[in-house]
Amino acid sequence: MSLVEIARFQDVYEADLAAAFLASHAIEVSVTERFQTTVDPLMQRALGIRLMVPGVQADQARDLLARAGSGEFATDEGDDLPPRPTRTWAFGALMALAAFATGGFWGNSLPRRFRGVSGTGMLLAGLLFIAVWGGVAIVAKLLLDPP
């Protein structure tokens, strides 16, 4: 029995969800690249996570995924969650500054590469914070108490 790739996902959780959906419809499914992507999460984007099924079930599995993607199996149940807040460029800039100021990212091999700039980043972030709030205070003083 040869396995055929029926779909490729960028996220292991999305692949697991699709695999569970197919398994609930009696499709024998296998999620590949699980080991590589859980050891180093950055590999998820590089490799992609593939769903493999036996060749005789490939057409049925592709059809089920297409129908699920079109919303055929959707229900109103569970859709009472509030919408996710949209993130602005300011949020992204704040997160990048926080990563630089604290020495990099956590959870993979990057902190060793960024460890040297931690002190400098903290100093620059502090000076930027003081400069921005100092400027706000000066502008507020000029507007509220003109000379």
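Next protein, fold it too.
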Amino acid sequence: MAMLNPENTGLIVVDVQGKLASLVSNSQAVISNCAALIQGSQHLDLPIIWLEQNPDKLGSTVKTLSDLLRSQSPITKYSFNACNEPNFTQALKEAGKTSWLICGIEAHICVYQTAFELSDQGFDVHLVRDCTSSRDPENITLAIDKLQNQNIAITSLEMCLYELVKDCRHPKFKTILNLIR
């Protein structure tokens, strides 16, 4: 596990969609934090991979996030583990990054299985805790415990963005600071 570095880091946004997005624990804060994480990633020119689980049944990504991501299309998946989706593995290859921030819902299903598999494949994976949720808070705790045992880093919105910027003289520092205030 290494410190985050904008040259080798990307963001994966997992399934923040439909009615489920409003049913997860701390829903509004999670969506708001995901929006700030997406904007921070965009300002730092990180590649973003955007996933939707079975959108015909679960609905589209929430408007707050889809508006921010409108310059690209989501990758549709049916497997809980996105690594089983060829379009996702192709997007990973094209991005060419070794470290991935991961956020979304639900922590104990799609986020967990995708993060676990990415780590198993040798990627440096960082779960953004305050940008990740499940309907039952107990399942969030369980997912985090299991992921930590897999050597996956647990971080926060503020922590990861500061880690990526590294220095208050960074040209994007004030922009990032305004996202997390």
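About the second fold: The CA atoms of residues 31 and 131 lie 7 Å apart.
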